[in-house]
Amino acid sequence: MSIPSAVKSTPIAGRQQLVDYLAAGEKPREAWRIGTEHEKFGFRTDDLKPPPFEGERGIRALLEGIAARHGWDIAREGETPVALSRNGASITLEPAGQLELSGAPLETIHQTCCEVNCHLEEVRSVAEGLGLGFLGMGFQPKWRRDEMPWMPKGRYRIMREYMPEVGSLGLDMMTRTCTVQVNLDFSSEADMVKKFRTSLALQPIATALFADSPFTDGRPNGYLSYRSHVWEDTDPDRTGMLDFVFADGFGYERYVDYILGVPMYFSYQDGRYVDLAGQDFKRFLAGELPALPGVKATMKDWADHLTTAFPEVRLKQYLEMRGADGGPWNRLCALPALWVGLLYDDDALDAAWDLVKDFSMAERHTLRNGVPKQALKLPFRRGSVRDLARETLKIAAQGLARRARLNRNGADERIYLEPLLEIVEAGQTPAERKLELFHGAWGGSVDPVFREFAY
After folding, report:
1. Were both Cys, which of 105, 294, 392, 429 would link to 33 (CB 3.0–4.6 Å)?
2. Positive/negative CA dihedral, 55, 57, 58, 61
3. Residue 308 phi, psi dihedral angles, 5° rounding
């Protein structure tokens, strides 16, 4: 979401402005769109090492090659290329060079899947000539934290220094995780609240279905979604299940209060990132920050600050579903299909809310804390998460069927749920499949994952 230039420099006069900014995301149903984002690990095909930024086979060469060959515009930080943009989509860099596609706002999952496939083909067309490949998983399976490169972006330098002060796994989150997420719209405050509550309660189901991070440093780590576990020890001030979302009276104002309580990372001033890690945004509103004496926050600062909270579901001017591990191309299409099926059809949203509305706070936390290790096999009430996942997929499929968005072959969007239905029916997550291979055909090595599961 880009901020109109006229808004960027607008001073913040009061709290209501911050509330109004979130409310400005409201859209009529016909304007609802689907924005899908995914990250992936780059590796050199000869030695499997992550590519650095510079060098003949580096990330910079990849970005410049994609821009030149496929008509993307280059965004720079100073003289350094750090992102690409084209037709409402962008390609950006995560801290260790994980390549992220932030897709354009699209109308159907068919368009989303075409976008993903086109992107992967464009990346491959340049990467192959550089001896690079890309892998979709939730956590870097082979290389240690100290073996990961760092990209030359100012905000990452600030976060890198601050993370160890607030958690033990924040640097792993930055350098060794990949996710797929979808960003979805709402029509009103009441619609936002219902979607937020429903999707937050069901986020552990997505984590279980997409669990694909069972290795750390080349060995099994005891988790099925280690990426999800990493968030549990990253920074408690800005992560988690947000219990207040389920409290009476929740809405834009309560979320603004939450974000105002999240410590800052930075402010972008005159082309540079100013380190404000750990400082109070409310003092920034008053112009009382020692590093920026007399400088008061603008709406651009607020928009940036909203991106520095990392709960399981995040509100900006849309809702972000953040619970899933990265994976192969078909699961990059399945994730938006799951949430669009649940949230963009009224009957499906009602059914999904009925499924979770009586979950207690303790049960929601049991699900969040249990699925990283046990995924679908986590016991819940009289059954398991697998039972919840089966019912969730049934509701999503019905929602997609009622949407009735057909491709050129006359198939609706339910076709993109197939990988998830197979996971539920087999009772085996992607992580468990890889562990089976590790202990069997791969002979105790994770190296084959780079060959067998690369894009």
Report:
1. 105
2. positive
3. -100, 5
Q: Given pLDDT bands bounded at 50, 70 and 90, which one contains residue 9?
A: confident
d(CA 151, CA 96): 6
Adjacent-strand bridge partners of 383: 380
**pLDDT for residue 235 is more than 60:** yes
Q: Tell me how far apart the alpha carbons of residues 158 and 265 are, in angstroms, rounded to a whole number.
A: 7
- For 249-258, the pLDDT digits (tens) are 999 999 999 9
Kindly provide the residue ranges of all beta strands, DSSP E only, lying in 336-423, ordered along the sequence: 379-380, 383-384
- Convert the pLDDT of each residue in 292-332 to its tens digit: 999 999 999 999 999 999 999 999 999 999 999 999 999 99
Burial (Cβ within 10 Å: 0-12, 13-18, ≥19) of residue 221: middle
Q: How many residues does the chain have?
A: 455
Contact 158, 266 (CB under 8 A): yes
DSSP letters for 127-196: HGGGTEEEE--SB-SS--GGGS-----HHHHHHHHHHHHH-SSHHHHHHHB-EEEEEE--SSHHHHHHHH
Alpha-carbon span 322 to 314, nearest angstrom = 8
Q: Above pLDDT 70, what percent of the chain? A: 98
Residue 5 has pLDDT above 50, yes or no: no
How far apart, in Å, are the Cα atoms of 356 and each of 107, 202, 246, 303? 27, 7, 11, 31
Would you call 60 exposed, middle or buried from its count of C-beta atoms within 10 A (0-12, 13-18, 19+)? Answer: buried
Query: Would you state the pLDDT for residue 8?
Result: 66
